[in-house]
C-alpha cells in the first residue's frame, strides 16, 4: 500500500477531539513516523513562507500573491492561543514577496521571492538595519546552522550556505534522494546536524545530511494536510517547519492552514 494512504487511513482512525488552544493528549498517527502532541490555531490569511522557534517564541513569515489580496508579506511572533501574529515588519507587497526567515547573531534575515534581495533586522527592536543580494534566481526557505552561517533554498535541488557577516555565498550542495536529484526544496530547519526541508507540493519533509546532501529520511505528513483540508477547503500546500529544542518537537503548518500541528517525529 502507498505509505501516504496508510498514514491517511491511520489518521482518520485515531484523531481525537481537540480544544481551540490545543490538545494535551498525544495522538498516534503512525508509530513509524510521528505522533501529534498539540493542535493550535493558525491565521487562515497567513500564506506561510517561513517558521522558526527562538527561546520558546514562534516566528512566522508570509508571502502575498496578487491573486490573494487578503494576504501580506510580513513576519512576526505567533500567538499559539489564537493563531494571530504580532507583526514586526511588513514589506511593500507591490515590490516584494516575502519568503523565508531565520535568526543568527541577534539579527533576523528575510528573503524575498524574485528580487534577489534580502533584508536584515535587529532581533530586539525589529528595525531594518541592512539589505543584501544573493546569487540564486529565487529566494525560498532560510535557516541558520549557527550564528555564523545561514542556509537558503531556491526551489531547486541546491542549498546555498551564506556567511552571516558579509552575506556572501560560501558553498552550495546538491540534494539527492536515493541517488536522484530532489527538486523543489522549500522551507528549511536545521536540527542537530541535519536540515529538514519541506518539498514543495508533496506534503512531506525530508531530513538532509549537510555533509553530502543526501536525504536520510522522508516523513510523510499528508495526514496533517488532509485534516487541514477537512477544516478549510481554501488551504494550499504544506510549508512551515519549526523545531522546539526544549521539547524536541516540530511545529508544522501550511499556506492558509487553519492549524499549526506540534508533532514528535519517531525513530
From TrEMBL:
<dbReference type="InterPro" id="IPR007788">
    <property type="entry name" value="QCT"/>
</dbReference>
<dbReference type="InterPro" id="IPR011044">
    <property type="entry name" value="Quino_amine_DH_bsu"/>
</dbReference>
<dbReference type="Pfam" id="PF05096">
    <property type="entry name" value="Glu_cyclase_2"/>
</dbReference>
<protein>
    <submittedName>
        <fullName>Glutaminyl-peptide cyclotransferase</fullName>
    </submittedName>
</protein>
Amino acid at each position: 500500500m502507498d505509505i501516504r494512504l496508510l498514514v491517511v487511513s491511520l489518521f482518520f482512525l485515531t484523531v481525537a477531539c481537540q480544544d481551540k488552544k490545543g490538545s494535551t493528549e498525544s495522538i498516534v498517527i503512525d508509530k513509524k513516523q510521528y505522533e501529534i502532541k498539540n493542535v493550535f490555531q493558525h491565521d487562515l490569511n497567513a500564506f506561510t513562507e517561513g517558521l522558526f522557534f527562538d527561546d520558546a517564541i514562534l516566528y512566522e513569515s508570509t508571502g502575498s500573491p496578487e491573486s490573494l489580496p487578503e494576504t501580506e508579506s510580513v513576519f512576526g511572533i505567533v500567538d499559539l492561543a489564537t493563531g494571530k501574529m504580532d507583526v514586526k515588519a511588513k514589506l511593500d507587497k507591490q515590490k516584494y514577496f516575502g519568503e523565508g526567515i531565520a535568526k543568527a547573531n541577534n539579527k533576523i534575515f528575510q528573503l524575498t521571492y524574485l528580487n534577489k534581495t534580502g533584508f536584515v533586522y535587529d532581533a530586539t527592536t525589529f528595525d531594518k538595519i541592512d539589505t543584501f543580494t544573493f546569487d540564486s534566481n529565487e529566494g525560498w526557505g532560510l535557516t541558520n546552522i549557527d550564528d555564523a552561517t545561514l542556509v537558503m533554498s531556491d526551489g531547486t535541488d541546491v542549498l546555498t550556505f551564506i556567511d552571516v557577516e558579509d552575506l556572501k555565498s560560501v558553498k552550495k550542495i546538491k540534494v539527492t534522494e536515493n541517488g536522484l536529484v530532489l527538486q523543489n526544496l522549500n522551507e528549511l530547519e536545521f536540527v542537530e546536524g541535519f536540515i529538514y526541508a519541506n518539498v514543495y507540493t508533496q506534503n512531506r519533509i525530508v531530513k538532509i545530511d549537510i555533509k553530502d546532501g543526501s536525504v536520510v529520511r522522508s516523513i510523510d505528513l499528508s495526514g496533517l494536510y488532509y485534516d487541514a483540508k477537512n477544516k478549510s477547503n481554501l488551504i494550499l500546500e504544506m510549508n512551515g517547519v519549526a523545531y522546539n529544542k526544549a521539547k524536541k518537537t516540530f511545529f508544522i503548518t501550511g499556506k492558509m492552514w487553519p492549524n499549526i500541528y506540534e508533532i514528535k517525529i519517531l525513530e
